[in-house]
Automatic annotation (TrEMBL):
Organism domain of life: Eukaryota
Official protein name in the record: 3-dehydrosphinganine reductase
Pathway assignment: Sphingolipid metabolism; Lipid metabolism; sphingolipid metabolism
Entry annotated with the keyword Lipid metabolism: yes
InterPro entries reported in the protein's UniProt record: KDSR-like (IPR045022), NAD(P)-bd_dom_sf (IPR036291), SDR_fam (IPR002347)
EC number of the protein: 1.1.1.102
Biological source species: Rhynchophorus ferrugineus
Length: 291
């Protein structure tokens, strides 16, 4: 919303690598990239899930020449990832877009492969796109997400620093801020989600992975820093804009005008969240009643 219309890059015949591409948002991005004519490599741990996703993604290729590859690897093992990436670059093509989607809500793993050799290779080629998957709780803290939120906040710092470091090399960085999205990962997360967190998230609704993936891909191809879905995420992203880079004067003016009024709307949400926490604290039986 209100983002400037930068020229959209093409994925045709380009190589897109997606960590976490066997499920949820990552798989939805892989399918869209295949539909756009890209070679797609997906990385994840579970071989069966990778095989299923591989077969599904293959159905969406638009030319015979497109190569779809699956790589069983744990992204927390950087050395194994590096070796695998080198191999697929040699056999397919240099990586044009790297989408970091591997992760889960109970955080605690390295979710990012942009440091070290990947960054060096993008710099050498003087083109490329890096996508990091954060979350709306990468912009604001929320009950029940303390560890997860800390990791996702960190990705913003990493993304903004990388943008400066990579600007002279024509490499863009996009930070995806998905809202609640209907994926196997989200279903899993719900099993241990505190009632307070559920009540706070209810208002935001549940989004389809295809919608979120489409927005991420569009924003990444247009070189936007933030990728968000929905009006509430627009409010939050604008409110938290701080010292983030801006992509046009129009965008800057809109942020300048909206920041004050949006602070009031934000304060209303914060009060509501605080009320939920107090209500649940005073009525410990509320969880059982809800179940
Ligand atoms: N869904 C949401 O509501 C939501 C909201 C905000 C942000 N996000 C973020 O979006 C990203 C994707 O979430 P999702 O809901 O699509 O999750 P998902 O359906 O659980 O998919 C996660 C993917 O990551 C892979 N993965 C996890 N750990 C890995 C590891 N150590 N090494 C390699 N692959 C690994 C999984 O495959 P294996 O398990 O086989 O390795 C799977 O392919 C995550 O970073 C999540 O935090 C999601």
């Amino acid at each position: 919303m209100f983002a400037n219309k930068k020229q959209r890059k093409s994925l045709w015949n380009r190589h897109v690598v997606i960590t976490g591409g066997s499920s949820g948002i990552g798989k939805a991005i892989a399918i869209l990239a295949a539909q756009d004519g890209a070679h797609v490599s997906i990385l994840a741990r579970n071989v069966e899930k990778l095989d299923d996703a591989f077969r599904e993604i293959k159905k969406y290729i638009v030319t015979e020449d497109q190569i779809i590859t699956r790589v069983p690897v744990d992204v927390s093992c950087l050395e194994a990832v590096e070796n695998n990436l080198l191999e697929i670059e040699e056999t397919i093509a240099p990586i044009f877009m790297l989408v970091n989607c591997a992760g889960f809500a109970a955080c605690g793993r390295l979710e990012d492969l942009t440091e070290r050799d990947i960054k060096r290779r993008f710099k050498k080629r003087r083109e490329g796109i890096i996508v990091m998957t954060s979350s709306v709780v990468g912009l604001m803290g929320m009950f029940g997400y303390s560890a997860y939120s800390a990791c996702k906040f960190g990705l913003r710092g990493l993304a903004e620093s990388l943008i400066m470091e990579l600007k002279p090399y024509n490499v863009s960085v996009t930070l995806a801020l998905p809202p609640d999205t209907d994926t196997p990962g989200f279903e899993n997360e719900n099993k241990s989600k505190p009632l307070e967190t559920k009540l706070m998230s209810e208002a935001g609704g549940l989004h389809k992975p295809e919608t979120v993936a489409k927005q991420i891909l569009e924003d990444a191809l247009r070189g936007h820093l933030f990728s968000y879905v929905g009006f509430e995420s627009f409010i939050l992203t604008t409110l938290c804009i701080g010292m983030s880079p801006f992509s046009s004067i129009i965008e800057l003016i809109i942020q300048f005008i909206l920041l004050g009024p949006l602070r009031l709307i934000g304060a209303f949400y914060i009060k509501q969240f605080e009320n939920i926490v107090l209500k649940c604290f005073k009525n410990p039986n509320i969880q059982e009643k809800k179940d």
